[in-house]
Amino acid sequence: MNNEKRAILVIAARLLDYPADGIKELINDIEELVENLIAATDIKEAIRQMYQPLCNFNDTEIQELYVETFDLKTKLGLYLTAYELGDSSRRGSALIKLQKIINQSGFERTGEELVDYIPMLLEFLAVAPENYESNHLQKRLAVAINYMSEHINQQNPYGGIFKMLMKHIFPTPTKEEIEQLELGREKADLEELPYPIMYG
């Protein structure tokens, strides 16, 4: 992975995290990253176009939009294993495995989010050594990011971030990979039922 791809991952991670400090400070930080880490003029312009719609909101509005987009709609939640396993009891062991991968790479987590928090995983991929585990995680994230890109309202200002990630970072998932995601979630949902479904 080249430096520009790593920079895009970090920028996307910052934009998809909760804008606690307000939109102006966030965009200033992003612009600094763009200037310092991105060499290609066309990539710089694409990133600026990606975040530009977010600049039309004040701090309160952007926080409300964030919550409305990511916290209240399960289709666009920011937790990887929730896409893969729903609320299955297997999600706990999946989180432990993910934590082990991150620890072994020497990546230090900050904050109180779960280990499968997608903005944190994007930032992790930007610094992770390229090996089987990080390549597999990249494929898992590709399926989730692609799903989010397809399900977010096309007018939502956050939509451009997912499109950018799918265009420049992640390979388009195969039909089989998408089906596996949906099947895994369906199986998990069925496991959670406290009684068998009976057909007469």
What's the helix and strand layout?
Blueprint: H1 3-16, H2 23-37, H3 41-51, H4 59-71, H5 80-85, H6 91-104, H7 118-127, H8 132-151, H9 159-168, H10 175-191
Please trace the helix and strand order, writing H or E for each element: HHHHHHHHHH
Q: How far apart lie the N and C ends? A: 55 Å
Shape: globular
On the 0-100 scale, what is the average pLDDT? 86
- Total number of distinct structural domains: 1
CATH top level class name: Mainly Alpha
The secondary structure category is: mainly alpha
In percent, how helical is the residue content? Answer: 55-70%
Radius of gyration, CA atoms, in whole angstroms: 18 Å
Distinct helical segment count: 10
Uncertain regions spanning at least 5 consecutive residues: 190-200
Tell me the total number of β-strands: 0
CATH architecture: Orthogonal Bundle
Summarize the biggest pleated sheet: none
CATH fold-level name: TorD-like
Strand percentage: under 5%
Give a structural overview.
With 200 residues, the protein is mostly helical. It is built from ten helices and no strands. It has helices at residues 3-16, 23-37, 41-51, 59-71, 80-85, 91-104, 118-127, 132-151, 159-168, 175-191. The model is unreliable at 190-200 (pLDDT under 50).
